[in-house]
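re: ur question from yesterday

yeah so i grabbed the chain u mentioned. its 431 aa long if i counted rite. heres the sequnce exactly as i have it in my notes:
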Amino acid sequence: MVKLIQPFAFGESNSPRDGRQPVAKPRQREPIAASEPERPIRVLAIDDDEGILENLAESLSASIFATKTTSSYQTFSQELERFDPDIAIIDLVMPAHDGMDVLKALRDRAYAGEIVVMSGQDGHVLETVRRVASSYGLSITGMLRKPFTPDELAAVLTRVERPNDDARISAALSERRIRPYFQPKIDLATGRIAGAEALSRWYHPDRGLLLPHTYLKAKQHNARNSLHDLTILERTAEFCSKLNGIGQTLKLAVNFSAGVVLAQEFLTVIADVQRRYGLAPEQLVIELTEHEATENFEELAERLLKLRLSGFGVSIDDFGTGHSSLSRLQKLPINELKIDRSFIMGLTEYSDNSAIVRSTIELAHTLHCTVVAEGVETTEALNVLQSLGCDMAQGFLFSPAVNESTFVALVRDNPFVFTDASTLSSSNGAA
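ran it thru and got these structure tokens back, copy pasting raw so excuse formatting
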């Protein structure tokens, strides 16, 4: 069994830092031993313009980078295997194989690193590329508009966490600098907070508040990801117990990759955490990312079935953007489906989005699943979702992910209870 980092008491400052939510005060820790040197960040770039490749190589000549460049799609594909880059920099418009071919090559090799797209195309094209990459399960760190300066390149690359930083991540988990923030899930019949999704955040001493894609390889099951996911589960269960203690019985959801769910110790850890914190099993919801495919689909279905039979909730996150199919939806024993924000954000502008959301809600209800809409940002989208019979919603219209103390305040005040659209808008502004 994976040994979890044991919880301990901690305090939060009441005053925001630089406009951010209050975070736990980090403890002093011993420096990392010199016997654990950091390897360079490996960068692989492809462009048909040799001049741009030369500028890239020169801009990335610092010792923290190991850089390879090529104008050949075949060479790029080979180096994906041999070089195993942490960052892939790709051009979109190339004569033989364009950027979409490169993205497909990254997808086919289950590439788990970061991607930087450089192009002179307009913003609509670049945003479409980002959406397509997301549907492939790929992470685009940034877009560089040609021509770009070395400073602009550096600004994009500094968002990427240095690889092989397991010791620092473990220390950050132990010190609660990596810990869950909670985004409320709103009951669309009443406007009350019905639960929350636990979202990992790292308050980094040098780089501020980081999102998980900067410090985790989301598509890889490894010791780092298991430790992270199970520690976030531990912290979430601890917080759920605190909420129970103040009379707020809510369901909290934690994200897991398929690889972590398939780990030998997973079911034992889930049951142990639930018992130690005195939670009802239904208070913990396991959210399975939709971006992943797995060769062990039948085993995954069996694991999820065991969770359901034990009373835990099982949800598919970001439905419609990854390896979804009616067959997968039919075979996985889920009781919650979350519609990806990419369909919600264009709900009132694009008839296709409305049709997809309507059909998804009807399908989910036929399968006796609760439906949660992600990325709700406008009252117009909220009104459409209510008219379509969606059960719950989360998004910036209500609240971003917040720390524990702020979430407790939201639960106590319940500022989103529906009276009319103007009241909702006013309440959101105050929050």
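noticed a couple things. The first helix runs from residue 50 to 59. also Residues 166-430 form a domain with the TIM Barrel fold (CATH 3.20.20.450).
anyway ttyl
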